[in-house]
Amino acid sequence: MGLPGQPRSDKNFQGCSHECSTDSPDLTSYFSRCNSIKVDSGCWVLYEHPNYTGSQYILSPGEYPDHQHWMGFNDSIKSCRSIKNVYGKSWKIRFYDKQDFGGQAAECVKDCPSVYETFKFRELRSCVVMDGTWVLYEQPDYHGHQYFLERGEYPNYTDWGANSPAAGSFRMVTEL
């Protein structure tokens, strides 16, 4: 999406394009499918559906010649927004194994390739982001569905857009 750059309707940067430099809640009038993206600067969250809903994909500067390069499940990108880490250069997140911040808690200030290996949790049901921005992945080693987490409270996993509490890994968003 060239964000600021250009999403292209076809693979390898072919077909019609649209340049985004600001948050865009509805990209449907620009293209029906998105198969390649160039991110010129900043980090962006792309969404499968309009109004920042559906599957999420977090992209840093670079070229993505097809949707598999951004771990996309299909070629549907209908909205996007830039990631603004206005909280300095520190990161801190706390997860809970029960909703509404109940049960056991685990706090972290660095990337975690395996939630189970590190914390012995198979599911995360709520969390508090105290500093920075994070990407939570459904599977270990940064694979599967992605969920963008910014500073704030998430009393239930549905608050970060997940359909299940499954959580395998997470990492800090550092490329701004």
Summarize the SSE layout with pairings.
Layout: E1 6-10, E2 14-17, E3 36-39, E4 44-49, E5 53-59, E6 62-64, E7 79-82, E8 92-98, E9 102-108, H1 115-119, E10 126-131, E11 134-139, E12 143-149, E13 152-154, E14 169-172
Antiparallel strand pairs: 1-2, 1-3, 3-6, 4-5, 4-7, 8-9, 8-10, 10-13, 11-12, 11-14
Keywords: Eye lens protein, Repeat
Protein name: Beta/gamma crystallin 'Greek key' domain-containing protein
Domain Beta/gamma crystallin 'Greek key': 42-84, 132-174
Describe the structure.
Crystallins are the dominant structural components of the vertebrate eye lens. Keywords: Eye lens protein, Repeat. Residues 42-84, 132-174 form the Beta/gamma crystallin 'Greek key' domain. There is one protein chain. With 176 residues, the chain is an all-beta fold. It folds into two domains: 6-82, Crystallins (Gamma-B Crystallin, domain 1, Sandwich); 92-172, Sandwich (Gamma-B Crystallin, domain 1). Helices cover 3% and strands 41% of the residues. The protein has one helix at 115-119, and strands at 6-10, 14-17, 36-39, 44-49, 53-59, 62-64, 79-82, 92-98, 102-108, 126-131, 134-139, 143-149, 152-154, 169-172. The chain has a four-stranded antiparallel beta sheet with strand order 2-1-3-6, with no helix packed on it. It has a four-stranded antiparallel beta sheet with strand order 9-8-10-13, with no helix packed on it. Strand 1 and strand 2 (14-17) form a beta hairpin. The longest helix is centred in the middle third of the chain and has 5 residues, at 115-119. The two termini are 16 Å apart.
